[in-house]
Design a protein that fits this description.
four-stranded antiparallel sheet; about 400 residues; Tick-borne Encephalitis virus Glycoprotein, domain 1; eight-stranded antiparallel sheet; mainly beta
């Protein structure tokens, strides 16, 4: 009977721990990235020896109650929830985000990230740095402090498009931005007029370029169009100027996409594209749909820092929970990959993976645990009553 009490107590202890696991799952119903723990139990047997239990002569196995089984982590996918952060990130499918802090590596399924004061992309309110894949395929944290400025680029080519009307007496393209090596912005104006050569040459136009001070850049040059309205060779004209540091810079004006048709006195010639830019300052850090970190600058330039690293594990159950949605592994992951590669999941920017706790499952387990605890307590109570009856037996004189 004493053995029955201990067995009943083992049940009460195991079901209490089961209740604790269920309570933790339910409490984390709204914790981003939380993975539910499974509740399981296992039987316990002693081999040989009667102990406090009675056994028949041919029975050497003695029931010793129940144990709370090893908890496993349910890694099924949680729902994706839209968020407003440019650096919020979740994994749809297999894989874990790779984070680092103080030389150690950690893993997460989702996170809300921001650029911290040290210049790293980190989990908000922490110093867990998001890792990207470097050129060697290794995961490393990227500091963007040295990338807050985008260098200037010299303007070498300006392309034009549209129609230069044969009936126009002048066509002017203003506010053409031209940048030198220091990022200084010059504003050019291109003026096209029918050639005044004598004798007159049909469909020939003179091209003059002036800067923001009104000074003429280079020498006047000419464009010739054929009867089909296409520009003849050369279709590009080169104008040179001297920058602030004394360097001579050649800028090619490309007119190959300009037509020469009659459209009255109105021409629609315009700048189609131009290279070069001034100095840019960092205006945004985002994660693209293909899982790359992109920097955006005030000069409209962008820079791709590389792919966010995803880690795969042969046995995710070996991961150790640390709280805050983080995991740790004693060894190296099976591999490091980019989004969508080699059977990995897809990185989903501006979304957070919700907890995968199934309330219906948890409440069902809760009822079973409660009934098990109740039944075990009844065994203890009845065993105690039987012992009390034994103590009440009086010998007959």
């Amino acid at each position: 009977m004493l053995g029955a009490i201990y067995i009943g107590l083992s049940g009460m202890n195991a079901f209490s721990r089961g209740l604790q696991a269920i309570s933790n799952n339910v409490a984390n119903l709204n914790s981003p990235g939380y993975k539910a723990s499974t509740v399981s139990f296992s039987d316990a047997f002693n081999i040989g020896g009667l102990g406090s239990s009675y056994s028949g002569r041919n029975n050497q196995f003695h029931g010793a109650g129940v144990r709370f089984g090893a908890q496993t982590i349910d890694f099924t996918q949680g729902d994706m929830r839209q968020s407003g952060g440019d650096l919020d990130l979740a994994v749809q499918g297999a894989g874990f985000l790779v984070l680092s802090r103080d030389g150690r590596t950690y893993y997460a399924r989702t996170g809300q990230f921001a650029v911290d004061d040290a210049g790293f992309i980190s989990l908000q309110g922490s110093d867990y740095h998001l890792n990207l894949l470097n050129a060697s395929g290794q995961a490393t944290a990227i500091n963007i402090d040295q990338l807050r400025t985008n260098p200037p680029s010299i303007t070498r080519n300006v392309s034009f498009g549209g129609n230069l009307s044969t009936g126009s007496t002048e066509a002017v393209i203003s506010d053409i931005a031209v940048y030198d090596a220091r990022g200084t912005r010059h504003v050019w104006k291109v003026t096209l007029k029918p050639s005044d050569e004598t004798p007159a040459v049909p469909n020939k136009w003179s091209v003059t370029v002036t800067d923001e001070t009104g000074a003429v850049v280079g020498e006047e040059q000419s464009l010739q169009f054929n009867l089909a309205g296409d520009v003849s060779d050369p279709s590009a004209l080169t104008f040179s100027y001297e920058s602030e540091n004394g360097e001579q810079i050649d800028v090619e004006l490309d007119f190959k996409d300009v037509d020469n048709f009659s459209s009255g006195t109105t021409s629609t010639i315009r700048v189609a594209s131009s290279d070069g830019n001034g100095v840019g300052t960092l205006t945004g850090v985002t994660i693209t749909e293909d899982g790359h970190v992109k920097l955006t600058y005030s000069n409209s330039k962008t820079e791709d820092l590389g792919a966010v690293a995803l880690a795969s594990f042969r046995d995710p159950q070996a991961l150790e929970r640390l709280g805050d949605g983080l995991f740790r592994n004693n060894g190296a992951p099976a591999g490091l990959f980019a989004s969508k590669n080699d059977g990995m999941g897809t990185l989903v920017p501006r979304q957070i993976e919700a907890s995968n706790v199934d309330l219906a499952q948890q409440f069902g387990d809760l009822i079973l645990v409660q009934r098990g605890f109740q039944a075990s307590s009844q065994v203890v109570s009845i065993s105690n009553d039987m012992i009390q009856q034994l103590f009440g037996i009086r010998g007959q004189g």
